[in-house]
Amino acid sequence: MPGTADLAGLLAELEEQGLGRRRCVLEGPQGVRVRLDGRDCLSFSSNDYLGLANHPGLVFAAQLAAGRFGVGAGAAHLLTGHHQLHHELETAFSAFVGLPAALLFSTGYMANLGVVSALLERNGAVFADRLNHASLVDAARLSGADHQRYRHLDLDDLDRRLKSSKARARLIATDAVFSMDGDIAPVPELLELAERHDAWLYLDDAHGFGVLGEQGRGVLERHASHPKPHSPRLIYLATLGKAAGVAGACVAGSRELVEWLVNKARTYVFTTAMPPMLAAAALKSLELIATEAWRRQRLAVLVQRLQTGVVRLPWRLLPSETPIQPLLVGGNADALRLADGLRQRGILIPAIRPPTVPQGTARLRISLSAGHTEADVDTLLTALADLARP
Fold first, then answer.
1. Checking DSSP bridges between strand 249-253 and strand 101-105, what pairing results, if any?
2. What CATH number is given to the structural domain containing 350?
3. Which residue among 76, 275, 296, 375 is buried most deeply as judged by most CB within 10 Å?
4. Cα–Cα distance between 325 and 48 in angstroms, integer?
5. Which stretch of DSSP H or E encloses residue 326?
6. pLDDT (tens digit, 9 = 90+) per residue, 267-309?
7. Among 291, 310, 336, where does a domain finish?
8. Alpha-carbon distance 109 to 372, whole Å?
9. Is 249 helix (H, G, I), strand (E, B) or coil?
10. Is the four-CA dihedral 57, 63, 67, 72 of positive or negative sign?
11. Are residues 89 and 228 in the same domain?
């Protein structure tokens, strides 16, 4: 850990390595066109995949709930903070994803920390995909369990590790859609391994919920033909701050699992409940996700247009059918220069660098939204072609 005298030097080292990070200030609502640090930009940098973050229906639902019930929940769920709207959201979410019960957390990060530590202790083991989100990595570490990271999407490596494990409790943890690569975990095969090795399967579907499946029910709907989609071993997480456009996260599974988490998930028990008005907005979001399939259809069109247009450029897109379209650049400085060149042209895309991604794989993470048009994608492609010229 750095001492107080070391911070300035360490920060300077980050800058020299092209790893310094700074916040930008958003001056208006989230959307595909934003005002950031006093400048108007065409944004490909949010996780608002369906364009719902500023949807008038969600805004109205939150306003109505705030008028009736106030703003803050005022207490933890196990005291007096568990509002009727929280309860309705949990019931609606479990029905939406087709699992028996659900539990609402304030954030996806808190959900991951709470679930893994509630199910595993030092005599347990977590088997985690090497490219999992930081929250799953931290959850495994904080649980005190044996933390084994298998090679990305390598089921043989996972199988070998499960076979050799002597742990009393086992949990396979994986992103459903990987946030920096956009590829999708092989859920049916993972569930078969969980069944074979007496393990839980924990799916973090932060980036698939709302996007995958005909009705946006996420990775479970995408694999609905699997013979055991509702195994009691399955634990499903969806965040509500990305495609759903609100905040918070729901964990779904068996009723016994949810009851255990109510009692043992410390990030649920020992925190104030989320504002009820956000639960009201999330309920409206579930309705829109299910009924407005045109948003997912537009995303598919935009993904295809981007992938076709990038073929003529010197950088390549990593294979992804999702709105996450990573443009692989390589070096940190090169990725920063490309992002800066786009910013000068009024286009906002973040440069993703280590430790978020492995060394030598710095990239621009292009995030598409149903709010984008084909003309927006063409504007991006034109700017990239301009920057590709020597």
1. antiparallel
2. 3.90.1150.10
3. 275
4. 14
5. strand 324-330
6. 999 999 999 999 999 999 999 999 999 999 999 999 999 999 9
7. 291
8. 28
9. strand
10. positive
11. yes
